Structure formats: C-alpha cells, structure tokens
C-alpha cells in the first residue's frame, strides 16, 4: 500500500460480504484501504458487471482509473499472488 500511496493512488476494495465479514478480513490481513460492503442485492457488483447471483459472490476484478476518472485498464481475472505488483507496474507506466 505504501508504494501506491506514494504515487497518489487510492485503493478501494469491494465485496458482496456483510460489513462485519469485511471488517474481520481487513483486520486479519492488516488492510488500510476502505472496503465497500455490497450484500443483499449486490447493487454495486451488478453495476460493475461482476455480480454472480447464482453463487452469491462477485468476480474478482480490478479497475485502474486515472486521476481524471478515465478507465485505463481492467483486470478481469484476478489471481491474488503477484496482482498488486502487476497493478503497481501499470500505474507507474500510465502515470509516468
């Protein structure tokens, strides 16, 4: 997170889990980023096209949005191992 913050990047997580589950997960992994909880109707997940209502989860996806609000890159299939490094490299390339 420090490297993203140093570049002025705001990282936000979202999950279809309830707030209490997100809080436990954030505490377990010492996360400092804000987490959006989207339980129930999965309104946020549906708006981003990642809702999977039949299984009750959302697809792991990352969107890289530049400071002007332009969507610069989508990672539609996120594998946690190494993902942050890949996104950080893209940020450095895009932001310069």
Tell me what you see in this structure.
With 96 residues, the protein is an alpha+beta fold. It has one domain: Glutaredoxin (3-Layer(aba) Sandwich). It has 4 helices and 6 strands, in the order αβαβαββββα. The strands form 3 sheets. It has a two-stranded parallel sheet. It has a two-stranded antiparallel sheet with strand order 3-4.
Could you outline the blueprint of secondary structure elements for this entry?
Layout: H1 2-6, E1 13-15, H2 19-28, E2 35-37, H3 43-47, E3 51-52, E4 57-58, E5 62-65, E6 71-75, H4 83-95
Parallel strand pairs: 1-2
Antiparallel strand pairs: 3-4, 5-6
What integer is the average pLDDT? Answer: 91
Shape: globular
In terms of DSSP E residues, the strand content is 15-25%
* CATH-defined topology: Glutaredoxin
Radius of gyration: 14 Å
Record field, number of beta strands: 6
Structural class category: alpha+beta
Helix content: 25-40%
State the gist of this model.
The chain has 96 residues and is of the alpha+beta class. It has helices at residues 2-6, 19-28, 43-47, 83-95, and strands at residues 13-15, 35-37, 51-52, 57-58, 62-65, 71-75. Helices cover 34% and strands 20% of the residues.
Sum up the structure in keywords.
Glutaredoxin, 96 residues, two-stranded parallel ribbon, two-stranded antiparallel sheet, globular, alpha+beta, single chain
């Amino acid at each position: 997170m420090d490297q993203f913050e140093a570049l002025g990047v705001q990282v936000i997580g979202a999950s279809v889990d309830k707030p209490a589950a997100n809080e436990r997960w954030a505490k377990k992994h010492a996360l400092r980023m804000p987490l959006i909880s989207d339980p129930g109707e999965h309104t946020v997940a549906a708006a981003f096209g990642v809702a999977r209502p039949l299984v009750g989860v959302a697809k792991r996806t990352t969107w890289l949005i530049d400071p002007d609000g332009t969507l610069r890159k989508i990672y539609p299939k996120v594998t946690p191992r190494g993902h942050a490094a890949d996104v950080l490299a893209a940020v450095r390339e895009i932001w310069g």
